[in-house]
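input
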Amino acid sequence: MFRLDGMAALVTGGTSGIGEGIARVFLGAGARVVVAARGQERGAAAAGRLREHGEAYFIPADVTEEGSVERLMAQMVAMLGGIDVLVNCAGTIRYVPLHEMEREQWSLTIDSNLTGVYLCSRHALPHLRQRQGAIVNVASNLAFRAGHALAPAYNAAKAGVVALTQVMAVTYGPDGVRVNAVCPGMVPTELNRPRWGKWNEEEWERVRQSHPLRRVGTPEDIGYAVLFLASKEAGWITGVSLLVDGGLTAR
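output
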């Protein structure tokens, strides 16, 4: 089992879905975890659930607002003494075809999924460079395949996360900071409920059978991949975007 004993980890978008799953896995590996998201009530509830697994805290933040991100980093450092691992998981999705997508919908999706990675990484890097820490970005297998044609801004943003991951890995590798990404496939969460919430059992079975491993993913499936990339056992891995999608992209 890979360990993060005593490390201070920040998981944005960590109050539900994949982000909360990552936080649970990190706590099980001995990390001290701060989860960040916009909703105060939802965040407090998530922190309460996570404390059943270890030392967990919630700090409200909007990753698309630079001032909010600066406050988040300052609060975390004051609380836990530094940052060893940053997981950029916050994001949103809009199921709208390109020819119908309003500029506001496009900008919101890009800001949440890509600009947020830039802002959080930028303001965490001074602390990560001090500790030779790690960044793990949550992208998507949709960075490599059209997938759902009704999510053009999301696909574009996640492809940008993959490219940004490589740039940061090359830039900050000499400082001892590793930067990698995971690219999840189909993991049913509140984020993508508009896509799967209306499926009947026959449609679910079709989706499961489309995966070589014959099932969809869980937040913990993604969490364990993130744990490996954040751990010292991955100490010679940087600039990688790891597909965690049950083999779907390999078809």
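quick obs: The helical segments are 17-28, 40-50, 66-80, 103-131, 152-172, 193-196, 201-210, 219-230.
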